[in-house]
Design brief:
It is globular, with a radius of gyration of 18 Å. It is an alpha/beta fold and 250 residues long. The chain has a single domain (3-242), classed as Vaccinia Virus protein VP39 (Rossmann fold, 3-Layer(aba) Sandwich), CATH 3.40.50. The chain has helices at residues 3-18, 32-45, 62-66, 79-91, 128-138, 155-163, 177-181, 183-186, 211-228, and strands spanning 50-54, 71-76, 98-101, 114-120, 139-150, 187-195, 238-246. A seven-stranded mixed β-sheet has the order 3-2-1-4-5-7-6.
Length: 250
Amino acid sequence: MDTRYQDEAAFHNQAYADNVRQVTKKYYVATVASSQHYRQYLEANCRGKRVLEYGCGENSYAIFMTKRDATVSAIDISDVAIKDCKERARKEGVDGIDFRVMNAEKLEYSDNTFDLVCGAAIIHHLEVDPALREIARVLKPSGSAIFREPLGYNPLFNLYRRLTPKLRTKDEHPLLMQDLALLNRHFEKVEITYYHLFTLLAVPVAKLPGGGAFLKAMNACDRWLFRYVAPMRRYAWTIIIEISQPKRTA
């Protein structure tokens, strides 16, 4: 087995077991807009479809989609994550989700299997080119995929990452522009939406009176900035990637 794969599996098993990333959750109040985009896309596109959740875990949408008449397969490198997902499904009385431990770069599915592939914070843990090749391979020609991922250019975010090395594996890498360029190698249609720069200012006040209004205002600033000042897009914390019309590459 590949050493990188073993290291990722061991890290995430320990992380899920110990809940080591609990400390970061206070920052995620700033990510409501991208979370809503991701959720709304799944809501609109999963019904009656065969879906692959590409990396499941504590933020899995497998149950959400199954309740909306999707046929869901969900994979993760961590057997602890798979066990936890199965237990949550059992508690909610949801049957029929095919949870499997699997290497996302070597999917154990046939070509043209899925209508939709989705994942949150997964691509940046992988070798991007082979991962995208596999996603394109298992998607039907009419299929689409959506991913929610971090970018790697903002100096403040990068400083935080350097100061908290125990919260991530040595191989994960927030996406760079050369990674995004690979999307066009494997998909005819690529759309990227940029999120979260000014919204980070709302983290300290989000739960105070007026905090919600301030967060909404910061989201509006981000929308304007990323729409009209293209060079600033690389400093976003998070992007939503929507891809379709998969290419078949060797």
